[in-house]
Structures are given as C-alpha cells and as structure tokens.
Amino acid sequence: xxxxxALPTLTAPVEDYLKVIFELEAxxxxxxxxxxxxxxxxAPASVSGMVRRLAEHGLITHERYRGVHLTKxxxxxxxxxxxxxxxxxxxxxxxLGYPWDLVHDEAExxxxxxxxxxxxxxxxxxxxxxTDPHGAPIxxxxxxxxxxxxxxxxxxxxxxxxxxxxxxxxxxxQLRYLAELGITPGRQIEVLSRAPFEGPISLRIGRVxxxxxxxxxxxxxxxxx
Amino acid sequence: xxxxxALPTLTAPVEDYLKVIFELEAxxxxxxxxxxxxxxxxAPASVSGMVRRLAEHGLITHERYRGVHLTKxxxxxxxxxxxxxxxxxxxxxxxLGYPWDLVHDEAExxxxxxxxxxxxxxxxxxxxxxTDPHGAPIxxxxxxxxxxxxxxxxxxxxxxxxxxxxxxxxxxxQLRYLAELGITPGRQIEVLSRAPFEGPISLRIGRVxxxxxxxxxxxxxxxxx
DNA sequence: AGACAGAGTTAGTCTTGCCTAACTTATTCC
DNA sequence: GGAATAAGTTAGGCAAGACTAACTCTGTCT
Lengths: 225, 225
Ligand SMILES: [Mn+2]
Ligand SMILES: [Mn+2]
Ligand SMILES: [Mn+2]
Ligand SMILES: [Mn+2]
Fold this sequence. Notes:
2 copies of one chain form a homodimer. By secondary structure, the first copy, chain A, is of the alpha+beta class.
C-alpha cells in the first residue's frame, strides 16, 4: 500500500543534489560530503547544510561523518529529474539538431522548469527514446531504470571487438573530441594494443586507427562483441 | 556608440518583474507598486524591496511614491524575456501540439531557463513566427517590438466587421472558452448588437451567433475590416 | 484648510542556499 | 598507542526574495 503524497515541488538546487547523490550512490554505494561538493561545484560546508535540510524533508538519511543515502521519496525524485534531463537531451538533438556537446548544460537548467506534460510530449515526439544522446538509459515515467552492465574501454583486452554504448557527458570539449574520433554510441571498435602502466590505447574505428589515453578510455563504456 | 556590457544573468524573479513593469508602462505610462504586486501575486512591500534592488542595478528608475520606469538596460532585458516567452508559446503549440490554454504557464517557467541558442532554434524550427498563439507580437532578437494599434472588441460599433488579432492569455479557462466560441486570431467577426450600460454583445462568428459579456470583449483585440 | 482613503514605504523576520574559518571525527601510518 | 591527515561539521555571515504590521505620503473631497 503506497500513500500518494504530493511532493511539495522541489527547488532546482534540491533536485540537483538528489541527482548527484543518486549517481554517487550507484557508484560507491554511499555518497560522501566532499564528493557531492566536488560534483556540484560548491563548498563542503554548503553540502552539510543542504544535507540537514534534505534529511529533515525525508529525502535522504544521514549518518554523521558516514555519508548519505536516498530514501524511497528521494530516489523517486532523483529518477524523475534524471528522466527529465535525458529526455530533454534526446529531444534537443533529435528534434532541434542540437550538437551533443551542448545539450547537457541546456538540460541542466530546463530539467527544473519543464512540466511532466512537456517531458511526455517531447518523448512522444521523438518516439519514446530509451537512451539519451550519450547512451545513458532514460528512466521510465514510472521511475524504473534499466542500467545495463557495461565495461570501460580502458579495461578491454587487446584484440577484442566491442560496441560503444555510452560516453561521459559532462565535458563538452571531450564530447567534441570523441565525435571527431568517431566514438559515438553504436560504433564498433577493436582494441589493437595497450601500452603498460596506464599507457595509451590504440583502437581501430571503422577503417582508421586512433590512439587515446587511459583517462579518456575510462569515460567510454562498451559492450563486448 | 554603445558599450557592450554583459548583463550579469538576471534571476527569474527579476526577469518577471521587468516584464510586468514593461507591460504596465506600455499601458499607463508608469508602473505603480500595487499594480506590480497584483500582477505578480506578491505583497506590495515585496515590490518596494525589489524596486530598490532593481534601481541599484540600473534596470529601473524610481521616484519615491511616484512609480518606476525601465532604463534602457531594463527595457532590453524585458524585451528579451518577452521574446523568449512568446517564442516558447509558439513553439509549444506549433511543434508539440500544445493547446493554447496551457502554453502560458509552461512558458512562464521555461523563459528563464532557455538559452538564446535554444530560443533561436525554436524560432527557426517553426519558421520565425511573428506572433505567439494568442496573437501577441514577438520582439526581434535585436529587441524591437512592433505593436500594432488594436481595438478592443468591446469598443466596436454595431454592424462593423472585424478580424480578431489578439486575445488575453493569462486565464486558461477564458482561453478554452474563446476556443469553444471560435474566437481565435485571424477569425472574422461581425458585431450584431450591443446592449447599453455595459450589456452583452452579440456576434456573428462564421455562420453562428454568440453573445458575450463586455469583460470578455475587452480581452479580445481586433482590427477593423 | 483639514480630513481621509489609498498608495507606497519602512522595519523586522523568515527561509534558502551559498561562503570562509575554525573545529571535530575517523582513519591511517609509524 | 599516538600523531598526522583527510573528511566532515559547526559557527557566523551574507544576499535574495518573500511576509506582516506599522507608518508616511499624496491627492481628493468637502
Ligand atoms: Mn540541474
Ligand atoms: Mn547525457
Ligand atoms: Mn516567468
Ligand atoms: Mn501569449
């Protein structure tokens, strides 16, 4: 039995905090104050303040000095914002010809202003997309997220052929470079060689060969075969 | 010689105040505290506070107890927001099939979050519209606004044939009713009769006859012939 | 001229969200 | 086990933007 409680419209900063906490928790299992601060570009002390408020509103639980976890309500709100963000990114590229390196910043603001109605119309207009332009899966209206297991390209053995599934979308410059290299979701890649000690990685992309650093290779998520 | 000064990104409330002041000034020649407060749904004291801040930032001039006027910079900012608002309304109806009674509220939020880039792409995608769905003219990118002289339907003589140019867009309910009556921009109407003392007005709309009150008729702006 | 209504302002308070500086806790390392 | 270090928190401030209550203009009406 679920009690339907109208969420009392969250502010833009609150939505951004929840989103970041969701993503950190998915990675580490727990979200730390400094991590959240770094991700949002605010001072750690500001995070402590917000964490108190989020806990008071029942969106997270907080163990002092131990990190935070989303509650059911917090997780729901986070997934709603993530859905909005990714639908907006998908719509901007597919319907308005936006380049994939610009959509993130735009979506970062619009995600707080668009109504559910608008998000649904956008999604419908481009055929209910399941991923955003960077390959990130889009949560459903109902708040379920199907996150497939993916491998960072940096961890793929030499000789293996993989398909690009998803790339990091925070850095616009990096996205432009990836596009230039031809590394976009759906692309087939073969790892030709890997220098030891975190050295450069050679790739065959289509019929050309390119070499990238391991840092970049960590941002490229692939599926084998 | 114009000095190019980057406006230090205005907040959403500031943009809304400037928009409202622009519209009141266009009407009365001056914007009063209480008018602004009523328009924004805020206490008059809140307006006094904001007015001080806007004046400090050089967006308005303020004579105590006398009302406010936009400066050049304030007018420019107001027109920018109005352009955004109307382009968004036009885009939502033309590209996403939004009904005309819902676009205002949506645009009221999105106008503060969309980049100039996005507004330009939206405008381009629907063929550089010159009016919004309610017939309001859209300011140009350069900040000029061509506001044609229009007559409220309430002031039209019996027997005169007019064309609907623009309708008030604040009240969603009213917009639904107007749509039901068939009173939308572009529509031809003939005034059949007007009862005295602010009485009801009979109209021929297409081949049907409808009667409306004078309050509603003030919200309908028309051009003769 | 004086009174009064309406418009506008001031004073004081609240919440949100941010900051820096100083402090406390947890962990790690010798 | 105790010191160093990293992580996290508290204290104290600030600006924006809202509120209520109390005060002050301004203009009008007699
Ligand atoms: Mn955001
Ligand atoms: Mn993305
Ligand atoms: Mn607005
Ligand atoms: Mn409109």
